[in-house]
Amino acid sequence: MVRVTRALLLTTAILLAVLPIGAQRLVGGVVPEHYSLWFAPDLERETFRGRASIDVVLTEPSSSITLHAAEIEFADVTITSGGQTQTARVTTDPKTETATLTVPRSIAEGRATIRIAYNGLLNDKLRGFYISRANGRKYAITQLEATDARRAFPSFDEPAHKATFDISMMIDAGDTAISNGRVLSDTPGPEPGKHTLTFARTPKMSTYLAAMIVGDFVCREGASDGTQIRVCSTPDKLGLTAFALEAAEQQLAFFNAYFGIKYAFGKLDIIAVPDFAAGAMENAGAITFRERLLLVDPSTSSLDARKRVAAIIAHEIAHQWFGNLVTMKWWDDIWLNEGFATWMETKPVAVWKPEWRVELNEAGDTRGALGIDAMRSTRPVRTKVETAAEINQVFDGIAYEKTAALLRMIEAYVGPEAFRKGVASYLKRFAYANAAGEDFWQEMAAVTGKPVDRILRSFVDREGAPVLSVRSSCSSGTGEIEVRMERFIGVPGAPSSPQTWTLPACFKTPEGQPRCELIDRQRQTLRGGSCQQSFANANGRGYYFTDYPTESVGSLSSSGNLTPIERLGLLGDEWWMVRAGRHDIDAYLAAATAFARDDTSAVIDAIAGPVTSIGDTLVSAADRPRYESWIRAQFGGQLAAMGLAPALGESDERQSRRAILFQLVGIAGNDPAVQRAARELAAAYLKNPSSLSGTMAPGVLRVAAFGGDRALYDQYVEQLGRLDSQPELYFRLFNALPWFKDAELTGRTLQFAVSPAVRTQDTATLLGLLMTRPWSQDQAWSFTQSHWTTLIARLGEFQGIPSIAESLGAFCTTARAREIRGFFEKNPVPSSDRAIRQSIERIENCAALVERQRKPLAAWIERQ
Q: How big is the chain by its Cα radius of gyration, in Å?
């Protein structure tokens, strides 16, 4: 599954179901083998009828069977065993979302069949089997991960309980249905105005991977390696499916070859649905997506949109192996699903579109994960979870981006081909079954002959990330590298934490090839090589921070010896050294200045974030004009030299760099000329969207909004109403609304966010963006508090609250941290507990950064 994260809010956490805190796992003794499921959704009444026949094996005699069920009304229930059928009495427990089926006579050990007729609700909370609306009609959709299959059918709703599935659906005559298997038959009736679709039996899979989608969907068809592929949407958006189909065809062939295991689920449907809580979901053979994360027009789309769509499709297709073919035994090992899919998502894209340089996106993801691990409130990769509220919280940057970064580090250490062989061996060994973390790293160590088990064990069960303090020197003409390892805490004054990991680190000097060593002690001295300062994360694959002497940061920045991915690493590390109080801010700003004319858009983007944040939080009002002048001086000339219009045949990379510079100079640099140009360009764009490149348009609309008035705001809102069938164009304007600085317009955006005009899946997008803008965050937080009951009722605890909680971390005063802590003590949200704690810690850390760095920053500005 792809999360809808704050990162997606900012361009575009996990949206999972939340159970009561007391929900627990099932007691053993009953093993499901096969489900036969029949559904009859009534879209008008927003209900459905269901029949479930579950073949099970009892490991011991029992007079009762307990399974999961939620929001289900039971009708007839029987259990057949040994040729005898008994009617069962049903006792439900809403707190644990279970139902216990009790029969008069004990059921013998061995095979039995449970038959259940029941009624269910097509809810409006985007969980389980739910109702969706678009184009004046209704749709029925499923989202079952992690613990919501029980809302669609009574089941043993835990990942280790794999079984095969036969699914059929009786639906309205004018509609179609999509499920995990291909359609075996489509027959009229049996009820008037209906037809029934029967789908092929699935391979063994977990309950959360079942899928039922009903409506007037239409599909673009293709194939790859003999597997039929369809990309489906509502009828008005079929024209936007070609890019996704091309990507899916390339990716499925790539994965078949890479794993050496052919795709296992018969056919592959990829469906854009109107309302969807998660970003995308890897249902076996029937992957579902938010429309904006699947549907693009390559002729008008931005580079970021195309990259995002291609990567998310690859992520979900990779899940067909990591997660669907081999599934974790329990949710504490969700990293085996999500981290591996995140690691794999860039591999086919790098082959398909090498000019996209996706390795730089990987580096950005690694920096994001390290940012989580820099906090005291981080967690180990493998965290004990029992309740669904706890399960909800482990779908985070640790499970996704940190795991992917660890895998890239180990892959670089053992070699890509050896790593691929180990992965293929693991998948073959555990195909159609379940595995734990130990199963993976033991297999990898056996196949590669390298201590992969030692490396992963040190990271998976231990929280935080290491920092390597690296000092290069000479002794008798021979180079030495002194390395000290400890846990990194990203706040000034944090006590030293003498924690160690086993990690491969690669050191680069100007003279030679990278030297790679296994670091596993608090202090190590590496002898030989150059006397000059070594760069300690060659190729950018290491998962650790690096602390250099401040004078070495300058020499490394100006050396011209670092690749783009290494420049990203140096900038990211140095910004964290400033935030942790290890270095003063002038060391970072010197590095930013050295790279200000870099020709790699990702490097400029990496500078733009901290430079903007410094202006928003650290610079005093008196110093702001001079700081903005420095931004214009460092970055404005490059923007002017590039011009505002792309040249004929200009690369996506150059267009992307222009777009980043335009927003940096126009907003953080407060350049009036750029703002005027933005308003002129936006006016032309509103009349003709093709007047701007897709890559340039989002930044132009934001900069225009930054200096825009009510008339421009009204034009944005009016245009939104005409763009329902074009998701990317819609969200360019939608995401620009929070960039209007006027308090009245902020108020309108807040009201808009909770109005019927905005889908509930998108409410948190606007609130989150407003919460992260300095001019609107106080107003947005006040609104959130006063509308909390409305937000909970509108979204439920699972749909957008985690993202809202995460966005609160943009504040920067201890008073605000106390206020947020007090609010959530009175209004607890178990599913977002860690996100709330981390936001409070981010606020406190930001306040500490201001206290530590404001004077050094003022002195630096004075020198400029």
A: 27
**SS3 of residue 422 by DSSP:** helix
Give the count of beta carbons closer than 10 Å to the beta carbon of residue 647. 10
Query: pLDDT per residue over 448-503, tens digit each?
Result: 999 999 999 999 999 999 999 999 888 777 778 899 999 999 998 888 788 999 99
Residue entry with tokens 């590390």: 573
Percent of the chain with pLDDT over 70: 97
Reported as a single tens digit per residue, the pLDDT across 154-168 is 999 999 999 999 999
The phi and psi torsions of 24 (rounded to 5 degrees) equal: -135, 170
Residues 226/264, Cβ–Cβ less than 8 Å: no
pLDDT tens digits along 126-158: 999 999 999 999 999 999 999 999 999 999 999
DSSP β-bridge partners for residue 154: none
Q: Is the peptide bond before 32 cis (omega within 30 degrees of 0)?
A: no
Burial of 577 (0-12, 13-18, 19+ CB in 10 A): buried
Q: Which of 31, 39, 43 is nearest to 167 (CA)?
A: 39
Residue 797, helix vs strand vs coil: helix
Is 650 known to be catalytic? no
C-alpha dist (Å) from residue 491 to 377, 581, 712: 12, 7, 41
How many whole angstroms separate alpha carbon 599 and alpha carbon 331? Answer: 43
Which residues touch 262 (CB under 8 Å, ≥6 apart)? 225, 256
Q: What is the pLDDT of residues 420-458, one digit of tens each?
A: 999 999 999 999 999 999 999 999 999 999 999 999 999
Q: Which of 316, 338, 359, 728 is catalytic?
A: 316
| H or E element, residue 103 | strand 98-107
Structure tokens at 368: 């994001």
CA distances from 566 to 344, 359, 655 (A): 21, 11, 22
